[in-house]
Iron-sulfur cluster biosynthesis family protein
Amino acid sequence: MEVRMNPHTTDKIKQAMGDQEGILKLFYDTEDCGCNGVLVLQVLDQPYPTDIQVQATPFSIFIDRQQAPLFDELMNVEADPVFPVYKVSSDDSVFSTNVPVKDLRKQAV
């Protein structure tokens, strides 16, 4: 799997992450949503043992290996020009147009 981002998206994610080290995880969060999950971009200190790294530049991006079948081989992450959310899509589908960044790093909490 590969995740592509344009320069504007890269800049907005760098701003969201700040100077603190971290990795990104594309994740369907099912906690307290009562549904199949809400797509989020998590910022973590390190990946979980069940995470797999996907091809991406300039960030290290991971997905949970059990969620890998939910994504297409080539994914796009695009920053909204006005709001602090992202659009996640592929050539075939739009996965969500309202993906927030959820910072779960220990120092950020």
